[in-house]
Amino acid sequence: MPVISRSPYGNFFSWFRNGHLETIYPSVFRKIKGLPYERERIDTPDGDFLDLDWVQTGSNKLIIVSHGLEGNTTRHYIKSCVRYFHQKGYDVLAWNYRSCSGEINRTLRLYHHGVTDDLETVIQHTISTRRYKRIGLVGYSMGGSTTLKYLGENGVNVPKHIVAAAVFSVPCNLWDSAHQLTFRKNTFYRKRFLKKLIQKVKQKHAQFPDAVNISAIDRIKSFGLFDERYTAPLHGFRNARHFYSTSSSDLHYHSITVPSLIVNALNDPLLGEKCYPYETCQNSKTLTLETPRCGGHVGFGLRGKNYSWMDQRAFEYIDRYMQEWSLH
């Protein structure tokens, strides 16, 4: 499939040709109001729960949306995507990863880039309890990584209902993405993520004091150390190196059978060169890589619009396959 290096995306304002500004501006200033979510809580096979937020029109087409690290279904990019597809006549389901819906989860484990069983639970629940004939997947940052890893792990066994996926600002290679967060220029993002994650580990300690040691946790300043002490042991990895080397979504791209669009801006401050899988996508029958020269990390604003270019691009890509499916 093609690599689209000359993307049609033109960035928000001419003076925003800066990956950090394009990332931070919408995160701080963009507000999406009045979305009529209907919440559903479902149980997981291991005794935990997931909170799903629905916007329904009565359509037989569904979009399932996955958020990024320490995000949730109230984030501006999620609500914007939900609203856009809803206005186009789709039912939309935005789901919260464990512990991200405003209530800490029950089990010791949390979530991470490489875990796909909760997305599997959401998809299977939807298929078994609803009447949808066609399903599209949209993911942002970590949610994009989870989406691609799920598709690759399942390969030819992906449910026939899933016709296409569109993902944005994807840390395709965890080693490379974690390394980017060590740079001084990314101190803001590193501190912000770690503050939230450390607070969540403290909540886990309150639930499981014998299983989670939080001594010196407030001195952690790097993702490498956080993943070594907490992400890895809480989720069955030997250490951070084992976590990074086995959880990257790019390990599974060769097995993806569902048409999938990966959009990673060239000025994304959180992605290194290994997060742009040019060769893999050129040799794939199902993957398309699009690399706009600007857009930042989950930015992609459009001047004078109440939606983002990500919303527009995801709809254009997925709806085409929805229409092709309906002709079969």
Task: Outline the fold blueprint.
Elements: E1 3-4, H1 19-29, E2 38-43, E3 49-55, E4 61-66, H2 76-87, E5 91-95, H3 117-129, E6 134-140, H4 142-154, E7 162-168, H5 174-180, H6 187-207, H7 223-234, H8 240-247, E8 260-263, H9 278-282, E9 287-290, H10 309-327
Parallel strand pairs: 1-9, 4-5, 4-6, 6-7, 7-8, 8-9
Antiparallel strand pairs: 2-3, 3-5
Helix pairs in contact: 2-10, 7-8
Structure description:
The chain is an alpha/beta fold and 328 residues long. The chain has two domains: 245 residues, 3-Layer(aba) Sandwich (Rossmann fold); 74 residues, no CATH class. 37% of the residues lie in helices and 15% in strands. The protein has ten helices and nine strands. Strands 1-9-8-7-6-4-5-3-2 form a nine-stranded mixed sheet, sandwiched between helices. Strand 6, helix 4 and strand 7 form a beta-alpha-beta unit. Helix 2 packs across helix 10 and helix 7 packs across helix 8. The protein is globular, with a radius of gyration of 19 Å. InterPro entries: AB_hydrolase_4_sf (IPR050960), AB_hydrolase_fold (IPR029058), ABHD4 (IPR012020), Hydrolase_4 (IPR022742). Belongs to the AB hydrolase superfamily. AB hydrolase 4 family. This is Serine aminopeptidase S33 domain-containing protein.
